[in-house]
Specification:
heterodimer, A: about 290 residues, alpha/beta, 9-stranded mixed sheet, 14 strands, globular, Rad51_C (chain A), ATP-binding (chain A), DNA damage (chain A), nucleotide-binding (chain A)
Chain lengths: ~290, ~350
C-alpha cells in the first residue's frame, strides 16, 4: 500500500482489536485486553507474574474473536530462562481451549539484541508464508531487558549504540504489528531507584510519581530511550502487607503466620487509550485473575 | 453627524452597516479594537463576517494615516498588514484555556509548533485534540478545517479519537446554544464526521516519512481545507541507527524546511511532536529534546510538556512572539482540559 494515500478512520472498526487476558476484571482494566497494532510493555521485578500473563495471553489469543481472542497463534521469544513448558501444560489443562493449544505457540530462544534483529526477516517471512490453521496474531518477547543487560557498558558510546538498537527493534516490531495486525507484548525488568542525585533515574515517566515493589522504590530498566519505544506501559507490583486479625481474605501466603499477604497490582503507567488505573490481581494454579475490591 | 461619515466610507454591505449602527457603533474607533469573536457576538453575525468588517475598518484607517502609502513591491506586506492579518486569523484551541493563554490564543497558523515531552505526558492526546479542534466551525470561532495526522509511532487509537470527538461535539452544541439563544441553530456535526475529516497516515520507516512529507504539498493543494498537519512524532524513525549523522541532519533540515513552506503557502498550522532524551553535558545528564541542536532552529515555537509534582505542565521554551510562561493542563476522558486544581483556584477567588 502506498504511504501517500490516507486511511479513512471510519473504514476500520471504531474499536481496536484487542486480545483478552482471559479474565474479565483484567480485561476491564485494559478496556478489552492487549491492543493489536501496538506494542505493550509489562514492567515488573521477577516473580510478579509477567511470564504468567504472557503465557496466559498466548493461550487466550487462540480463542475465537467472539470470545475476545484473536483466533490466532503466537510467536514466543524467551531470553532468560528455559521456556516454562510445565506451567504452560498446567494452564492448558485449565483453559477452555480444545485441541492441543501448545501447538499454536511457536517458541524460540534469543540471547542477544543482535540475534533478535537478525531474526526479524525470518519472522517476517514466517508471518507471511506459514500456513497454519491459526495465523500468528501475537508476538511475545520475554524479556527484552535481558537482551540488553550484559552486552553494553555504561559509557556514552555504548549507551548511544544501545538506544539506537532499541529504536531499530521497536521500529521493526511496530512495522510488523501494523502489517499483520499483531498484538506485541514485551516484558521489562526493574532496577532499584538510587536516590535523587543518580542522574535521571528518578525521572517521572507516566502516571505514577514513584513505583514501589517488594517495599523498594524501583524504576523500569533500559531508561528513557526505551520508554519512547513502547505504546503502552503496564507495571506489575507486589507488596507484602500485614493484614488485621479478623481479616480472612483470600490469597493468604503460606508463610510464617497468617497475618501477611501479598498484594499484587497491575497499574497503567501510560497508554494512548487508557486513563490512569490500578487493579488488584492474584496468581492461582489456573492462571492470573483480577480481584474486585 | 460628521463622524458618521466614517462608517459610510467603509467597504461593507448596507446591512452590516445597519447592524453596526443599531448596536451603537457609530465611529470606527468605537469598535476597531474589538476581537472578531466579540464583535460577532455583539452583532449576532458569524465570526468571519465580523473579521471582514474589522479588516475593512483597519484598511480604512490605514488609508487615512499613511496617505496612500502602497506597498512598494507587489505582493509584499507591511508589518502592519501582517499584524492585522494575524490578529484576524483564528487559532486552533487546545481545549485548555490556560494552555491557549500562554500560546497567545492557541496554535497559530503559518507557524511550525514543536511540542516535546516524556512518554505518557500527553503528546498524542494533545495531537488528537488538535486534529479534532481544527474542525470547530468558523461560526463558533474555529477554523472549520481538516487535519492531516502523520503517525510514526502507532500510538493513535481510533477509540480515543472518537471519545475526544464526542466530547468536542457536545461542547460545540453547548457553546452554540449560549451564542445564539434566540436563533434556531444547531450543530449538526457528528463524531464520525470528525473522524472522517482526519486524513490519517501511518508511516513505518524514515524513508516513508520523507516520501510522505514530500508528497504533502501535492496532497494539500488538492485538499485546500486542510488547516493543520500533525506529525506524531517527528523523531521516532530518526533515532534508529543513523551511522551517517550528517545525512540525518540534512534529511531533518530538509523536512523542516518543507513543513515550514507548507505552513506559509497554505496558511495552515504545523504541529510536530518530539521526544526527550538525556544529554551528557558538563559531567551530568540533562533532559533535552531529541534530534540535536541544529534541529532546534527548525520550528517557530517550542513547547515542553513536563510533570510538576502530580500535575502536567506546558512551558513555552522558544517563540519569537510569546513570552516564556508555563501553565498546567490535564488529560481527562474528554481530552485536554484545564487542570482540575486550577479550576478550584478560580472558584475560590
Amino acid at each position: 500500500m502506498a504511504v501517500t494515500s490516507p486511511e479513512n478512520l471510519l473504514s476500520r472498526p471504531l474499536i481496536t482489536h484487542k486480545c483478552t487476558l482471559g479474565c474479565p476484571i483484567l480485561d476491564r482494566c485494559l478496556d478489552g485486553g492487549v491492543p493489536c497494532n501496538s506494542v505493550t510493555e509489562l514492567v515488573a521485578e521477577s516473580g510478579c507474574g509477567k511470564t504468567q500473563l504472557c503465557l496466559q495471553l498466548a493461550l487466550s489469543a487462540q480463542l475465537p474473536i467472539s470470545q475476545g481472542g484473536l483466533s490466532g497463534s503466537s510467536l514466543y521469544f524467551h531470553t532468560e530462562f528455559p521456556f516454562p513448558f510445565r506451567r504452560l501444560q498446567q494452564l492448558c489443562h485449565e483453559s477452555r481451549l480444545g485441541g492441543d493449544p501448545p501447538d499454536n505457540i511457536f517458541v524460540q530462544a534469543v540471547h542477544s539484541a543482535g540475534q533478535l534483529l537478525d531474526e526479524m526477516p525470518r519472522i517476517e517471512s514466517f508471518l507471511r508464508y506459514s500456513k497454519f490453521r491459526l495465523p500468528v496474531r501475537l508476538i511475545v518477547i520475554d524479556s527484552i531487558a535481558a537482551l540488553f543487560r550484559s552486552e553494553f557498558d555504561n559509557t556514552p558510546f555504548d549507551l548511544k549504540r544501545r538506544s539506537s538498537l532499541f529504536f531499530k527493534i521497536s521500529g521493526q516490531l511496530k512495522s510488523l504489528a501494523k502489517r499483520f495486525d499483531l498484538a506485541v507484548v514485551v516484558t521489562n525488568q526493574v532496577v532499584d531507584f538510587m536516590g535523587e542525585n543518580e542522574g535521571l533515574n528518578g525521572l517521572r515517566i507516566g502516571n505514577s510519581g514513584a513505583l514501589y515493589s517488594s517495599g523498594r522504590r524501583v524504576c523500569p530498566a533500559l531508561g528513557l530511550a526505551w520508554a519512547n519505544c513502547v505504546n503502552s506501559r503496564l507495571f506489575l507490583s507486589r507488596n507484602e502487607e500485614v493484614i488485621g486479625e479478623e481479616n480472612s481474605s483470600v490469597n493468604v501466603d503460606d508463610g510464617d503466620n497468617l497475618r501477611r499477604q501479598t498484594r499484587r497490582q497491575i497499574h497503567v503507567l501510560f497508554a494512548p487509550h487508557l486513563p490512569k488505573s490500578s487493579t488488584e490481581f492474584v496468581i492461582r494454579r489456573e492462571g492470573v485473575f483480577g480481584v474486585d475490591r | 453627524m460628521y463622524r458618521w461619515m466614517e462608517l459610510g466610507r467603509l467597504r461593507i454591505s448596507t446591512s452590516q452597516r445597519g447592524k453596526l449602527i443599531s448596536a451603537g457603533y457609530s465611529t470606527l474607533s468605537s469598535f476597531s479594537s474589538l476581537t472578531p469573536s466579540h464583535l460577532a457576538r455583539e452583532l449576532m453575525i458569524p465570526e468571519e463576517e465580523a473579521a471582514q468588517i474589522l479588516k475593512a475598518a483597519s484598511d480604512n484607517s490605514r488609508l487615512d494615516n499613511t496617505d496612500g502609502g502602497q506597498a512598494i513591491v507587489n505582493g509584499a506586506q507591511t508589518a502592519w498588514e501582517m499584524l492585522h492579518e494575524e490578529q484576524l486569523f483564528p487559532r486552533i484551541t487546545t481545549s485548555c484555556a490556560d494552555l491557549d493563554n500562554i500560546l497567545g490564543g492557541g496554535i497559530n497558523c503559518k507557524e511550525v509548533t514543536e511540542i516535546g515531552g516524556v512518554p505518557g505526558i500527553g503528546k498524542t492526546q494533545l495531537g488528537i485534540q488538535i486534529a479534532v479542534n481544527v474542525q470547530i466551525p468558523v461560526g463558533l470561532g474555529g477554523l472549520g478545517g481538516k487535519a492531516v495526522y502523520i503517525d510514526t509511532e502507532g500510538s493513535f487509537m481510533v477509540e480515543r479519537a472518537l471519545q475526544i470527538a464526542e466530547a468536542s461535539v457536545s461542547d460545540m452544541s453547548e457553546y452554540n446554544d449560549l451564542l445564539r439563544k434566540n436563533r434556531a441553530c444547531q450543530v449538526n456535526t457528528k463524531p464520525s464526521d470528525i473522524l472522517e475529516n482526519i486524513y490519517y497516515f501511518r508511516v513505518c520507516s524514515y524513508t516513508e516519512q520523507m516520501a510522505l512529507i514530500n508528497y504533502l504539498e501535492k496532497f494539500i493543494s488538492e485538499h485546500k481545507d486542510v488547516k493543520v498537519v500533525i506529525v506524531d512524532s517527528v523523531t521516532f524513525h530518526f533515532r534508529q541507527d543513523f551511522e551517517d549523522l550528517a545525512l540525518r541532519t540534512r534529511l531533518l533540515s530538509g523536512m523542516a524546511l518543507k513543513l515550514m513552506n507548507l505552513a506559509k503557502t497554505f496558511n495552515l498550522a504545523v504541529v510536530i511532536f518530539n521526544q526527550v532524551t538525556t544529554k551528557y553535558t558538563e559531567g551530568s545528564f540533562q533532559l533535552a529534546l531529541a534530534l540535536g541542536d541544529s534541529w532546534s532552529h527548525s520550528c517557530t515555537n517550542r513547547v515542553i510538556l513536563f510533570w510538576n509534582g502530580d500535575e502536567r505542565y506546558a512551558y513555552i521554551d522558544k517563540s519569537p512572539s510569546l513570552r516564556s510562561a508555563s501553565a498546567p493542563f490535564s488529560v481527562t476522558g474528554k481530552g485536554i482540559r484545564n487542570s482540575a486544581s486550577n479550576h478550584k483556584r478560580i472558584k475560590l477567588m
